[in-house]
TrEMBL record:
GO terms for molecular function: ABC-type transporter activity. It is a multi-pass membrane protein. Residues 37-263 form the ABC transmembrane type-2 domain. This is Transport permease protein. It comes from Streptomyces griseus subsp. griseus (strain JCM 4626 / CBS 651.72 / NBRC 13350 / KCC S-0626 / ISP 5235). It comes from the Bacteria. Pfam families: ABC2_membrane. Its main location: membrane. The chain crosses the membrane at residues 39-59, 74-96, 117-141, 153-174, 186-205, 242-260. Coiled coil: none annotated. Keywords: Antibiotic resistance, Cell membrane, Membrane, Transmembrane, Transmembrane helix, Transport.
Amino acid sequence: MSAATAPPAPSLTANVRARPGRAVLRAETLLFFREPGSVFWVMAFPTLLLLILGFIPAMTEAKDELGGLSTVEAYVPVAVLLSMIMAGLMAMPPVITGYRERGILRRMSTTPVRPTSVLGAQVGLHAAASLFSAVLTLAVGRIVSGVALPGQILGYLLTLLLAVVCVLALGALISALSPTTKIAQAVSISVFFPSMLAAGVYMPIQQMPDVMARIVELLPFGAAAQALNQATAGDWPDWNHLGVLALWTLVLSASATRWFRWQ
């Protein structure tokens, strides 16, 4: 009787043909974690910033101009938004634009691995990294500085999801309009600093002059910061803030879809 032979192991090509989306996600995940700069700025820097503020005694004292909050408490939503801004504006656009500039997306259109799989993997990875950073920031703020966790969990989660989709749609629009990686980086930096201002990185929105605060609240990250503050305090986020964030998300998503080109 002849010995039974084991079936041959499936090749990498066979795996890609069978599960192209999973293979692309695995490859993009490995590439993402091989870029220590992106991992640090998206997943570690916002929490590290909050940690440093927590060790400064003056930053943990309640202040009337912040509505009775300490600087650390006021900066928790800021740090959460900062990770999203880093992911959507600084990390993702150069990668997607680079793929198109080098012809990778065009060549993939003739293979079982569709270009949409790469875009989906990039969006999913940066969204997951941003949300992980948000959870880490909340945990560090609670453990190290005694910052209260959000009192309105559902409102906080809704705001987080809207903010993540909005910033990634903005990053996708930058990728769509930028023909080269260098241009994508330049545009991202140009949008990055105003976005940080709107999110309250330079100055919490509670300390901004009234006119400036009203203008900032019409921008996506200003509206998100206010909504996160309200949810943290235990209130349902103002529907005006959620509406501004949702409107920006729809406009940016539609624009990115309209102008994105594979080559």
